Queue: 3 jobs
Job 1
Amino acid sequence: LLSASGSQRLAAHRQRAGAAVPVPTLTVPRAPHHQILTNDAANSLTSAVNLARLPRAAALVAAAGANSPAIENTRAKRCVLQVGDKELILETGEIGRQANGAIMASMGETMIYTTACANQGSAGDGSFVPLTVNYQERFSAAGKTSGGYIKREGRPKDADVLTSRLVDRPIRPMFTKGWACETQVLQWVMSYDGVHAPETFAITAAAASLLVSDIPFEKAVSGVRVGWIDGKPVINPTEAQQAGPSNKLDLIVAGTRDAVLMIEGFCSFLTDEEMLEAVAVGADVISSVCLQIEAWAAEVGKPKKRNLVKLPDGLEAAVFDIVAAPLKELYSRTTGKEERAAQESALYKQAQDLVASGELGIGDVTPIQLQLAFKAASSTVLRNVVLTEGRRIDGRGLRDIRPIYARANPLPRTHGSVLFTRGETQALCVATLGSKADAQRTETMRDDGEKGSGDSFYLQYHFPPSSVGEVGRTGAPGRRELGHGELAQRALTPVVPKDEWPYVVRVESTITESNGSSSMASVCGGCLAMLDAGVPLLRPVAGIAMGLILEPDGSHVVLSDILGTEDALGDMDFKVAGDADTLTAFQMDIKVEGITVDIMRTALAQAREGRRHILGEMAKCSPPPRMALSPHAPRMMRRPVDPNKKGGIIGSGGKTIRAICEVTGADINLNDDGMIEIMAPSQEALEKAMDMVELAADPPAIGRVFRGVKVVSVQAFGAFVELGPGRDGLVHVSELGTGGFVADASAVVKVGEVMDVMVLDNRGGKTSLSRKAVAAMDRGEPVGAAAAPAAGSNGTEGGASDGDVVEVGAGQRRT
């Protein structure tokens, strides 16, 4: 393929470079430019050209210099794991080599690319891990493009944020204590097969990327999904199995080879023992997977960094000696949140003054280091008081629930509302009823393309900074708000009626006070608010947060209805929602390893006891929920409609249905299943909208009277009036007069005037009307059966049917 001049130039270049590289040549017969090549001939020609290009490119590379660095071998190092009956493949070393750690994880044809990176300098002081996890599902993974105006993925979707939280929670406790460098884990779903859910192994991929990196990460962490299909647990069910009617559970379990770190599940009234069985099955699989990942990471991973932030020697012991005794006295007597915080601040100031004076001989101490030492002392004292005395900082016993008060309908113009208070945690919940147009719609790579689908029930959680007496950011919901709202929504979803309930239900929970478990307060308040809105719930549900204090020697206590302080200083936050006997949602985050199935069984039994108490207190709501539609709630009607008549209802370009909606204020939906749904702001508007829909679908009954209809056109032979959107009728000139003969219609009516008319005939789809007949009827003159509409037609009663002789005016008879 090389021309003569090209060969000469290459030979000259080779001579200058001193490289004796032979120049391969390949002669390809050229076809005349007008000759049409067959497919085989075209493929042969293309192959020949490509073969010719390869050696030529090799020659040029070699000629460029023999001293060029060799390309590093980028073959991926693989780890093949058996997860249930599916295969999970982890690969590293080929993609993302400049990141601290990178993993390409695949299950089936679903693939997640994960990177872990950390800055060099410390961004914190060791009090927390500055970790950020960002997970994103790309439309291109499923061969799709976003349907929005902007096609590029931008702001994370709510579902992506929820998965990011799901990944963050189990891996955060596994960083080496004192790691303070800003760390970022990024995940992209690059391929999606519609069978294997990516979030199922996103936790495993994130932990593996940290484990093979130089970031100090203690152990492998793995996650699995567990379903409950046909009465038994199933590991990593397919998307179809997960969404199938026989599945009652959606559970994500994450942990290490030794212990469970996180569970999050939503179910349709499973028992405690069924849930524990599902957790145990998932934990067994996780343990096996983690052992294999750690062995693989030991071969392919990097040496770990050790630039950790630690407290000055002796600081914790010195602070403990200063504050332990007064803290024990404080935690052993009943105090409120504000009083307790004020006394803790005074003790902290005392320790700060002593440290700053130099009497303790510790040296320079930053305020953050002192706060960490004070927090450690507070945690030790509090845990000892609870373990030894069985007494909590607000004076309650281990199983006691804080006082509960609920009041329905505090907001009179809402469809349903409740103020729910439990101790120092309070939620103002509002339920709003709407049509299908109000459903929560989302667009993801998993969408099947159906339009109009969405969640018919959803809960939105708001946590303003004022609920804890602080100043902070407001606006779009943060990750915590999305996570708490999702938990409360999934806890209530199983009790919200679906097919038999025509409304879309939206619940808003605004936290007005917070000192422990505001998400579970949202479950209780949301349940009562829906009852106040008249939603026929299948059964009431309640939620409770459980805590745990676990010592290294195995001694432990389980706490019911924990406070914010008990959550911060304890070892477990276990939220459980359900009815009196079964579960609808549960979420557990564990800060230490060592939680056994027996401890979880104890916590679940204690939570069931607490839920029963809370449900009893909710039943005392005063005033109680109205259990009926509010006068301010919209009214809805569902009726079957003949598919052949949908065109008449919709009208040309949707003109008729839009006009009905504008006149009545109603929302109208025509479903593919042959049902029409009409939602209107009042019963009167609903009836008016339904009448207009029926009029657009069918001609009006003979004898029906319309009052105050508008004249839309005047012709020499009569006037056309609008009976309703999509339905006009003609008042012939002979029927226009109210007392005598009319020769010209324009002499008695004008466009825009209104008149009363009666239906005379509907032959050929054309409606004939009479003004004269109504005038006679109003004067008390007999007009026969035409004064009343026909029975069974358009919701009217008594009238004539086709073929009857009807008196329509003085001396006139019409068939």
Job 2
Amino acid sequence: NPKTIDAIFYCVFLIMFTAVAFNAQGGATNSSSYYTSANLRHKWEEPFLRISDAAGWFDYMESVFVPTTFPIAWYNGEPFGADDLGWPGGHPEMYRLIGEVSTRQVRVADGSCSVATAIAGIVPVCYGSYSRNTEGKESYGPVAEGGEQGRYQYSTAESNGENSFTAQVGTYYGGGFRMSIPSTPSNITQEQALLRVKQLRDTRWIDRQTRAVFVDFTLYNPSDDTLAIVKLSAEFPTSGGVLTRAYLRQLRAQQLWLRAEGTAHVVLETFLLLFILGYAGSEVRLMYRMGLTAYFGRFWGVYDWINFLLFFVSYGFRYHALALAGGLPFPPTEGTFVNYEPPAFYVVQWKNLMAINAFVTWIKIFKYLESVPFLSHLLKVFYTALPDTVGFLAATIAIFVGFTLSHFLAYGDDIYAYRTLAASFVTLYRQLLGDFDVQSMEDSNRVLGPAFFVLWTLVSTILLLNIFIAIVIDSYEKVRQQVDRVTFAAFVRESALPPLQEVYKKIQKLTGDDDDEEEEEEDPPEDEAEREFRTWRRYIFRRSRSAFWFKSAAEGGHPGAAYELALLFKVGHKEGSDLTKEAHVPFPRDVKLAAQWFGKAAEAGNSLAQYEYAMCLLEGVGVERDAPFACEWLELSAQQGVAQAYYQLGMCRERGEGV
């Protein structure tokens, strides 16, 4: 069965994909990366989030960052030995600082915003928001004796080894004013680092032109072979204050620099890519045979290529990360800063796309299981509901956008959850799931707060949700009327188990396990008439079972079953003089019952039953002959595309019957 073979191959593909996903995360049960992240955030980020101004940034660096990053003594006060230095966080800890700690400042130029003429006298200069066009590159700071430029010089993104970085309020390019903090493991490193921070404070390294300050350092856990790339971001927006956050990227070193285990993982990823290319090639051939319009007119045609596109882009990120890491030394030499953030960024994006594709790829298994009856019923409901759902989504998006804009305008100045249009959209979606903060809306706007809340809940919960449920129920009813729903138990009993039982019997025959049973159960020789009788009886038994199920379904109002039952009564059994055979006939031919069930199925809208019932009326079989009434049923059947009905209707017109 080609469909079965395709399903088996896709299951193998899913196993490979899942193995690659586990490797990307470090294993299905490995939680060490989470606990490492929680530990690092506790030590560095939690105090960092309490910074409220530039002075607070220097206080944090002097009282928290330097002592935590460059410890020099054990918890009992005993000085570190040479092998103990360079392990941040206080002992006992499991991660090693590799390379220098780097600080980088991003600034805006003089005149980066304009001042209104009316107030130019009291505001002579203005410093605006950061962008590539307003970026400040002029040197500043104290001028050395005999020099012409300030101490702090601008360095480009290439020399810094930096990509653009998006923080909370802006995107900052890789250039800036970079200063390193002494990080060579020694007993005087902490003192040197504190001196460097004090020099920055004394020379007003941070001023009104500063828009962001980043502190970058890299930690390595040898027991897990894990890199933790940490960036402490402090933004100084034009609104005043400071916005702080720690950004942490964790990845296994073997994902960038291949070793034995990492090479095996890359080989598995390559096999998965070959699998993907094979599937893509088969879809290209199918596209060529069907044509673009017919191919992409199918749901799975569009879905497949979304899946392939996600795979191809994710593999582009994966191999680009390997290429970038190949040009970086690992580990870096002491006293130098190597920025591993660019390759780590692409590894994280690879994992993000794999996360999206995990859902897409596993859902795609239904494409290969469409022939399974109890799943095909579910898929038919989905396909039937899809057109109405698309229209429903369009209407829902329009309503969402309108309410999002209204909430953004009403609360954007006061409530954090509505600070931007995108944040307002997410907050409204969370309200659909029951996450309400009515009090903050009422405190912000006593009139619109309660009004918007009541209106939004009425429209979203009572109207939109119930419309969607109605669409699904209507689609289910349509499918239920068209096809019989086969349960999982029935599928296993009638379709899955018989082939397995046959295979088991063949295996028994091959191994000789059932020789004795065969000898015991072997029937005596029988003549030709007896074999014919047994064959005929099995045929009748199958038909009797069909009649039983057709009759049960027909009495329940199923038009298709009524039509099939009428056909059985119309044909009956072959006439013969063998009374033994006659005794096993489950039902004789009964044209009256056949006409009766044809009529019931015809009234329920079955096109073939309408034709058969019309022929009964036209020929007077099982009912009184009624040509005009027969022509009415022929017209109904012909309207549904039954070719025989067209022919018989034409013959009636030619003979002048039913006119």
Job 3
Amino acid sequence: LGMADRSNKGLNLVLDLVRTQTPWSKIPPEIRKRYQSQLGTEDKWERLRIPWALQLHLPHHTTMLIPKSKFYYRALEAFRVKRMPYPYHYQREIIDLLGILPRRYYSELIATLLASERGFDEVPSFTARDVVRLINIDRNAYIRIANACKRDNQWSNVKRRHAVISRYLPPPPLEEGTPDPWWNVWTVGARKQEEGVEWEQKELNAFSTITQSESTLAGEVSRTGVNMLHCRGRVWFEVKLTPQDRITVPPLEGFVMNKLNRDQFERLMYEIFVTADESYTLQELATVLNADLRLVLDAASLYCRLGFAKRVPPHGESIALHVSWESEGGNQPTGGLERQGTDTDDLRDRIALVYDASVVSWLMMGSFSATLKQLSVSMFEVGRLRAKSVEQLITEIGKLDRNTAAAAGGEFLEYFEYSAALRRTLLSIQAGGKRKVSMFRLGSLANLDHKTRAKLLERYTCVVSIAPSRATTEHDQNPPSLGPPSRLCRSPWMKLFLYQSLQSGPASVLFSRGTRITTLPHPLRKYRRYLVVEWDASNSQVASSNPVTGKTEGLDGSGNGVLIVHRCEIVLLLNSRITLHPVFVQGYETMEFEDSKQGKLRERRTSSGHARWASAIMMAGCLKRDEDMRRIKSPNAHSKELTAVVPLPFPTTKADTKEKKNSIEGRGELGVPVEAYEVAKRVVMEFGVGRAVGYVRTLTEINPKTKEIKWIPLELEFGVVMFQHNSNTTQCKLLETDELLSEEALKSHANDMTAFAKRLDKFVSKYSSGPGKGWLPRHSLLFDGHSLRRLTLA
């Protein structure tokens, strides 16, 4: 509710009334009448005020119809049911009224989970981190406790399970709950002498120091003493932030990759992960996110408590530290960061590199470095690497050894090549330190609303994308983007637009949902294998999920959304998939020879229908199960014999063209056939994208009868190529100079991309149902190799 749609005036009015704790009697009658659907009746309003107040992290108010203790008990139970982190924003009231500390809360939560025999994965990620921090139970410890409990003789008695569990829970860790020196420390009531428990002198001294002052910082007390008091539940910590404070997010340590709650507060926390910058105050950050300041402060406080963020100390701040904080290896004097060399010293020449989840998988699966894995987790969960962390990433990738990757076998060498290409790209963009680079995960940017994303990116000189990317976000070229200029670039419409504009391309069909076929349209029958892409309602090719929203992000950068299907399987596959969503199918490999016997068998249609036709094929033994259907697991997995990749931009001078035409291999060290180069040149001239960074993939078509080879366009992608060494090297050489990233070049490029996006939008509007219905096709469309038309099925 704290991040509700600002266009919904009725909901915003309700939220304002909740924030001001307005009782029913104080709501003006005209407002009650106008927004009756939101406000309801008096009874409904009073019932809903409390859960809404809890979601907005509002305290108890005297106008509420329930006592204060019951309000905070309901808050605790609401958080416990959803397994959310302890409600630290109500900590003072919960401790004073209910006496429940965070350690007890988490111990009971874990006990309930164990008693119901559920897994540790059921604990959401942020909650799991606090569980590890405070009660020392991680995934492995949880499994050990669960196994020990099940071996206990009393486990079969359900009523005795909590008693059994309590015997196996570990003691709370002494050091894991160590506060930062700037945290406030408060005592839990007056000093009491527990039965059989003696107070140590360090505890007594620390307790005395805390009680002698109205407000005490943890750094002013003995580090060991305050830890012992906290471990035994005698003190609690307040992590208080003000609207003028600033935070920064270093690489994650101790993050637990578990399930998500997908509630509004968790969503806000992930948005802060991406947008938090030490140049923003928390007040400014709330403005950028268009979020409630109270919720932003609570989220930032929780981040600092979990160790995922650091408070940036204001200039001149100093704490009279107890000597133990330095002698015992404590934190920095202010518990924050040194201000020298921060990411915000120079806001000029800042470049944002946008990557997708496939890049993270390369790093995680292909690395042997714990530091690199930590950075990879940050890239995925935080969704961003700041400039300092990018420098660390470059260093860690540089430590990888190609021979070690090759010796590991499997796909490790391919992962190494991808990682090396990423490092080469980052170094080229930095241009010897002239520019600073930050990295953003595409899914995290897509999770932000348009205004927030625009405010975040406008601080950068340019946005550079990796190609091919999982999807893209709406971008108005402010700042200029060396990447896809429209979301439609990652949909089948892009290919149809390319083919129709050039009047050249493989025969292709975009089947609308619900279509049924008994055989392929005639132009597709000359192929042996096909490329098949399933298309969801977000006009993106079907792939994996966004870790925050759970929604599909589109085509995976590794190509996981594309199938190569043998002609013997294609009709069966299409009929099974078109019932769910539109499907895009295009010819990929033509028949290289004519086998009249099998050819007639494949085209045979009998009165008994398609099932008998397919059975006849299988009986004839024409199906090869290892080749019938496979996914393109990486962008480099396309057939080298059928396709060629031409990187963009490329020189277009007469002298260069003449030199390349005289080369048998086409463009020199790239090894691209001259015919493929000519196709790419046609693409550049047709769309005016001579300054774009990307590539054109071309395809060969072989006439089965004449054996004539013809090169045609297959796809146009925008962004820096990662999957091919020569192409990446060529583009990186241009990125090092000002040829692509100068102010004049970026301005011209932005104009070119804006014109391209408008032309693409106009084309799609002609054939689609519009943005309201996900740009889905109104009818099935056929491109026959020369022109696009509506497909009519017999």
